[in-house]
Structure formats: structure tokens, C-alpha cells
Protein 1
Amino acid sequence: MTSMSIAKTECFVKTHFAAHIVMAVRYRDGLQDSFPCYENVVLVCAETDDEAMSQAAQLGREEANVEADDFRWDGRPARWEFVGVRKLIECRSPGSIQDRVSHGTELTYSQFTLDSEADLTRFANGDAVSVLCEE
């Protein structure tokens, strides 16, 4: 099933999940001593936790594949990288079957900087790390 067909799926017959997708900036020009990243929270509609996790990972991979040759971070050429799905939260709307949000809608985001690639991996796995929260 493609993302477009998933996006057109009627969510009211499935469970809503908020998926926390971790995206990091990777520099194209050499060593990297910090890892700017965003935690994007998107709505996913699925019948099971496993299906929701799979769909969230697909959304992250698709976002990372949007390449822009002119993308820069702190003046350096860069690209986005999908790191992982940090957590998945089941959303509930008691008494409402007509939610106005749909599959793939970004609900919120957070921007952090991590001190190392090891911290980036731990963060994406849902483990505790020290972060600089920028936004």
C-alpha cells in the first residue's frame, strides 16, 4: 500500500496513533560534531501497534528522500536523515468519529541538538540522553 493510498484511508475505522519520528541533519561536507534533529509528531491510522510503527517508519523514510541540493544547515550543505520512530502513542477522541486531522498530519515538532551520534541513536530508541532543546 502506498502512502497516498494510506492517506486516503478512512481513519475513523482504525485507531489513531501519534508517531514521534526522529529526523536528523547530516552534513555533506565532512565531520560532524553535533546532530541537529527534529522530532516530528504525525498522525497514523492503523489497526495494530505494529502496523502503526511500520507506517510511521515509512513516513520518515519518505521525508528523508525529499532531496534539495541547496539545503544548508548553519551555512553547510546538508541533507535530512530518518533516524527512527522514538515512540508511538495511541490517540483517543472520545465520542468523536469526525476528527478533522488525517493520516500523516504533522501535529507538532521539537528541535534538539545532541552531543554525539551515540546519543542520537539512543534518543531514536527512546532511551534517556542529554539534549539541547532549541524549539
Protein 2
Amino acid sequence: MRFANGVVGQQGAYFDGNSYIEIRDSNSLDLSRAFTFSVWLYKEDAGAGGYAVVLSKGDTAATDDNSPYALFHDYPGLSPTVRLTKDNRWTGLISAGARTDFKQWHHLGVTWDGRDVKFYVDGVLTDTQTWQGPLPNSAASLLIGCDPPGVTEYFRGMMDDLRIYNYALSDSEVQAVYSGAGHATPTPTPTPTPTTTPTTTPTTAGTALIAGSRTVAPGSTVQVPVNFQNAQNVGSLGFKLGYNPSVVQVIKVSKGSLLASSTFTSNVQSDFIIFGFATPQAISGTGSAAVVEFKALGAGGSRSPLTLTEIIATGSSGATLSVNAVNGELSIGQKQIGDADGDGKLSVLDALIALKMYVQALPLDLTVDINKDGRVTPEDARLIMERAKP
């Protein structure tokens, strides 16, 4: 275990899948009547053992009062879960319906007020389930990032700003903890091997083609833009976009808004798409060059790189233009609540999509049901706009 830059400050903890932090027992860790667990997580994967363990008081083998509580993720390391003990046995193994995806920062909050267990992901209440206490007190150590013995499970990735309260925070207090960390996206991983982080929008200086990054639920569809940044007097453009056909399927290819006046064609091949544009009038500015609708074929956790190659561009005079390429990625998994377009953040566009669902111009997606009333309404659009990150 070592320290690296996190979300809140300079001391996020990185766990390598074979390390943990041990905290000796104290009265402050007795949570018999209520608790709140709050932590920022960046999971590389499901960790050793497959359960992405956050913390455990005692251990898995102690199916008695010596192991009163644990926070981990249901196999394969995606759905937040608490294990609660009463009367010398596990009586609560409670999982959230929402997920915290791999290779993305998420804030996870879990509260229990003596009756209701509530799960929050990125400040949004996602699940409420009932469990009656009390929890037993235990002299066992609190383990961060580990749950032994049997098949010992370890966390792999980063944790930051881990908090344990002996009372249940309110909805607004959980939201305040989440918002208090700020919204700057940190360096996604402290390991030497670079990884793609779909929640950030890559940028580069000069003229560039930028493949979008999105998250889509298994079996669902998503629209991914290829954006043209800082186009300067462009007369023609051609490029390829590669994808993994075992993970995603191309449903539809459309011309983007920036090149709306251009003559356009495309051809979908087994693992790439070829695009061609031409116009006698110069095009300048920033906007979408094309939009590709994909369907998710892969299982949760699978990914398809979106790779831009063979870019050729000329100006209105016929001179060759230099265009940089920024690749994207499609991730198969659970979207953030309210994230209608799957780009990893809440925006006015998500609110517009929610309104289109309400007027039945788009298919219903209950991921956009912010207030959890079982439908998508203008109120959900308002809540999305209220929580949109600047």
C-alpha cells in the first residue's frame, strides 16, 4: 500500500491487491445503533477474491458477533454490499442495485439509522432496504481493503477520504460530503500502465478528431460522437474508427452537426467504420463530425477501444492539413444515475434527453429517474440540471 494523489487531497491510498490497513479496535468503531460509511473509490478491477472489499470489522470466517459489519461489492466487484451481523450470525447481506464501475472515480455512501440501509452513489440515493439492529460490539480490528480469512479478499485500486460515522447522515449531508470534494477529475490511476478513463473528456491543442467515451448498460444502445476540434478551413476529411465487434455492434452512422452542409458517406466493416466528407465551402469551428450508435453486446465490465486511424484532411485550397487523433472507449456497465448519454457526467444534455423521454420522443430509460418514482418526468430533468457539474 502506498499514497498517491486522490480526489480530495494528496494522500489517497493505493492498494495493490495484496495489502491493507489495520486499525486497532476502539469504542468509536462500535456502531451498534447507526452508521455511515463514506469513501471515494477508484477500482482497478474486482480485486483479489472478486469482491472489491472496502472495509471489514472482523473477518468472513467469523460468522458471529466478532464480525459485526463489512462493506464490499457483490461478485464480480460491482454492486456495493454490506454484511451485518446479529445474534451470532449474518442476518444482513444487503446489496445495492446501482453499481460503481471499474476504472472510474465514484463516491460511495452507505447509511443505517437502526432500520433503513441506504446506498448513495455519487451523492444520489439509489437504494433503501430495511434491516433491524442492533449491531454487536466487537474487539476485532478494522481492516481497510481486506476481508480475511478463508479465501482472503483484497481491494485493488485507490481509496480517498474514507469516513466512518456512528450515526446516519441525512440525504443532504451525504450530498454535501460528495460535493465538498470538488469535481476536478484526478489522475485516474497511480500505476505506471496508462488506462483510459471514460469519465474525462480528452482534449489536445490544435485541430483534432476526438472519439467520445461512453458507458452503456449490457444490451442497450448509446450514441458516441466523433468531434472535430478547432477545424480551420477544412474542405475534405476521411478517417477510420476501429471498435471491438465482440463487445459492441454498430447500429447507425449519422453525419455530425459541424459537417451538416458537407457531402458525407460511411461504410461499416467488421471491426471499423470508414468516413468520408467533402465540401466546396470551407468549414471551421468545433462540433461533431459524425455520430455512431452502438449496441452493447459484451458483458458488464467489458470494454471496446474506439481508435481513430488513417486521418486525411485538406483545406479549401487542397493543401494537406494536420489533424491530431484522440481515441475513446465504450465501457459496458451501469451508468451513473441521471447520466442519459453515458458520458460519465450530468449535463443540460442529459436533462434534455429526460424531457424527450417524458414526451415519448425517446425510449424510456429509468437510469434517468433521479427521484426514483418509477417514471421519467420534467422533475427528473430539473434535478439533473440542478446537479449538473459545471
Protein 3
Amino acid sequence: MIREKEAAEEGFRYFDSSEDGSVSIAEFESGFAKMLSAFAAAKSAAEGHGTVSHAMDRFADFVFGLAAVIVILSFYKVPVSSLFVPVSSVLLSLSFALGTTISNAVTSFVFVVAMRPYDVGDRVATACIGGGATLVVE
């Protein structure tokens, strides 16, 4: 509980630039613009990884957009908590149905991005693409 309170206070200070204990719409817009520029910097740091970078960009755009919508709706006092129950039940059912497949995909993604097992120009022999074709990493 203490950690959550500290995180909430830190997030509040991020938006309260005048440090007067309240967040105006101008301060909120300024804080949101800072978050957006930090997000853009993180995305540009991940560029140059080809298809993996494109997929990661799309996923990051989706997550950031969803978080932005939730924050903006809650700032205008729209009850977004009533949406969490149906959305979480759908996500829970999808996690049971697709859990193993998603786990394997995430593990493969982390392996390719973090370990970088192939360099540009490497030849990779495949058994399932093109009947055993040899591909060149670009």
C-alpha cells in the first residue's frame, strides 16, 4: 500500500508543475506532452530491428493509446472502472485459450530482440518455408 501511494504521489508531481496541489488542464496537457516525447524517444531507440521493430511499435502505440484514453477519461471523471470487469474477463478467457501460444511468441520475440542470434548477411536454412529454402538475413 505504501509503494502504491508513493507511486501515485510521484505521478501527481509529474503533472503538477506549479506544485500547488492541483493539476490544471494546461498542466495536464504539458505533462502529457512530456510523456509523449519520452515515448517517442523510446520508440526511436528501438528502430533498426526490421519487422520486429515494426511489430513492437504497433504494440507500444496500442498500449500507450489505451493508457492515454484511460487517463483522459478519468481526468474528466468518466467512470472507467466499470469497463475493467468486462475487459478483464475477456482477457482472462483469452489468456487461458491462447496462453501457451502467446508464451512461446513472447519468448521467441525476447530471444530475437535481446540475444540477436543472427547478423546481417547470415544464411539461415529453414525446413518449413519454401520446402527447405536458405534465407539471408538483411
